[in-house]
Design goal:
With 618 residues, the protein is of the alpha/beta class. The protein is 40% helix and 15% strand. The chain is built from 25 helices and 17 strands. The strands form three sheets. A seven-stranded mixed β-sheet has the order 7-6-8-9-11-10-15, sandwiched between helices. Helix 3 crosses helix 12, helix 5 packs parallel to helix 6 (150-159) and helix 8 (195-209) packs antiparallel against helix 9. The longest helix is centred in the N-terminal third of the chain and has 19 residues, at 20-38.
Amino acid sequence: MILEKINKPNDIHRIPLEDFPRLAGEIRNFLIQSVSETGGHLASNLGVVELTMALHNVLSFPEDKLIWDVGHQSYTHKILTGRKNEFKSLRKEGGLSGFPKRQESCCDAFDTGHSSNSVSAGLGYVRARDILGERHHVVSVIGDGALTGGMAYEALNNAAELKTNFIIVLNDNNMSISRNVGGMSAYLSAIRTAEAYTGMKLSVTKTLEKVPRVGTAIVDTVRRTKSSIKQLIIPGMLFENMGLTYLGPVDGHNMRQMMKLFNEAKRVEGAVLVHVLTKKGQGYAPALKYPERFHGTGPFNIQTGKERAVKTGSTYTDVFSGTLTELGKKNSRITAITAAMPEGTGLESFRKSFPTRFFDVGIAEEHAVTFAAGLALGGMLPVVAVYSSFLQRAMDQILEDVCMQKLHVIFALDRAGLVGADGETHHGCFDLSYLSMMPNMTVMAPGDGEELRRMLEFAVDLEGPAAIRYPRGTAPSIPELGEEPLEYGKSQILSRGEGLALLGVGSMLQVCREVWQEEKNGGKNPTLVNVRFVKPLDTGLLDALAKDHSLLVTVEENVYSGGFGEHVSAYMEEHHPGVRVISAAVGDHFVPHGTVENQRARNGLSCESILRMIEECE
């Protein structure tokens, strides 16, 4: 196997070009086999095998810098930099990350996991290189989906001022996680299908190159000038009009064409964008047919493409999806907004039922929030469904555009808390902190699936902004939560005792129930509380508990700083200093990838950990 010859960075330079297609096939087979066993991002990685190989052929690592936008398509890069033997540990605790990680390899130039930032990071590398008088190349790869994010345009605008080389590779597969939307998608589609342009360009180029002595020079001149033939064929030429040199489009599965273009790009004095057309899922029929399903997958059967894990019940996302669709039937003002994730956030059902009230704004969370503010002011009731981790990108818009104006916008935060294999960039462990600090915001966390349904109904009847955060995975059913209506700002006492009170936030209510049972078995009579509302803080409950409790234990899948436990501690210290408060929460650090169970245990959020905390206080 040729792949056996790839054991360290730059080994690809020793592979003959005629063996590249075979190597690409071996890499694809390796990826399919590996991800079928560990789970991971498959479709995006299959789509960039040849692109990655072409880049590695023209670059030298770690001297040159290659920055992947989002980063979940970096598996081939990891293989070509000597990490193929670590793929058995992909996304496992202590193992290979599913994203670029600088601590993992000096060939990973930037830690990524969110979208639209590679051009900004690359531009910073370029400026540093020039100041220090260095001569290496900097390449930023950005997908067409990531170009729906405004940050990319801020960086492109800035990059246009460059007088030194900076290569931007546009990996255009017409997909982000779901199918791309909007004007940029339409623009790139026009370039993809401009056969008159591509055919004419190739014909003219080949003809000119045959002219003795001057032909090649003419071709180079035509390629460099902004008034070239492509501007006549494709109106606008957005990138060149911004001040960037544009090369392409080129077949992203033709390595020789790409290498030729990349070598040409290396000679440009300024920022140059190379437009590469790829197919997400290339080389594996199920991933080509269902690229959204294979964007991120668990272990699967290679022959059938079906995941091995059997779904055991409704997820929180399922509950949200069904409830919002039902509410949409009753209330014609309800609208739904997603940032390029209709399937992931559960909005596909709403889209099918109410297509005119559904909006996919692309990977543009900031825009999604302010767009929702405008909808609210226009008389609609917008629901912004987003992963907790991604909502962090829109903090200013939530604060300034929604909360300051007291607008009735509902935020449905999926994947809140620890999420497991995707690691640091995808945990939703900060939302309680940053949302709770915002005036006029109501923050809720359901203890089970039924409570999520009731909280969503409750939020529709509220005035002002509200956020409901819920975890990934199967939604439990806790009969003790009952059916009584929610009362604004009030927690629910599930069992009234004395001495010790356990206050569980959302997903941590299950863990608190386990702790409560263990304490009961030990002869104690603790109080068990379903917090429900993180903001406003239920100070009436805290005052009541202070009368016959000496220890309060708060449990939340959020960082301690600014979280529910810190707010409870501050209140009790001021009003009831004799009552001790201990908080189980994520510490002041980022949580690496692994299983959710292990992540909870390592952060003091398991039943055993909390029992030890209580014992140490007694």
